[in-house]
């Protein structure tokens, strides 16, 4: 029963993701087409229109470069934090391993001492 419910939930989530993706793409395409139509249909000279298009392209390029740099910086910071976290975990594991080895050695020494004591008692 749970398996069927999980599959139904999974299908529903996939459908919602598809719908959200379609809406996002539609909004983006509509915005671009609306902007282009507004620029091209505006009562302005061709020279001014071309200048506006050029300025818009330059601004778009600048925004894309800025967003790429921001994403790159975020990714670098995330990777740095993850590496530090991994190093900490490895250090803790090494410390635990060392402690476990020391504990095992101490236990072995204690057992050897007890065996020696018992063998002495038996020989007496």
How does this model look, in words?
With 124 residues, the protein is mainly alpha-helical. 95% of the residues lie in helices and 0% in strands. It is elongated. The N and C termini lie far apart (71 Å). The mean pLDDT is 85.
Helix/strand-derived category reads mainly alpha
Radius of gyration: 35 Å
Low-confidence stretches: none
Strand content: under 5%
Strand element count: 0
| Largest sheet composition | none
Task: Summarize the helix and strand pattern as letters.
Answer: HH
What number is the mean pLDDT?
85
User: What general outline do the C-alpha atoms trace?
Assistant: elongated
The DSSP helix count reads 2
Q: What is the helical fraction, as a range of percent?
A: over 70%
CA(first)-CA(last) distance: 71 Å
């Amino acid at each position: 029963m749970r398996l069927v419910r999980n599959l139904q939930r999974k299908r529903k989530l996939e459908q919602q993701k598809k719908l959200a993706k379609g809406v996002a793409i539609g909004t983006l395409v509509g915005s671009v087409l609306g902007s282009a139509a507004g620029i091209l249909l505006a009562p302005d000279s061709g020279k001014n229109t071309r200048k506006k298009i050029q300025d818009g392209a330059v601004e778009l390029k600048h925004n894309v470069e800025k967003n790429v740099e921001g994403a790159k910086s975020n990714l670098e910071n995330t990777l740095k934090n993850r590496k530090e976290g991994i190093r900490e975990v490895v250090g803790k594991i090494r410390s635990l391993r060392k402690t476990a080895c020391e504990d095992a050695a101490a236990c072995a020494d204690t057992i050897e001492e007890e065996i020696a004591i018992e063998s002495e008692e038996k020989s007496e």
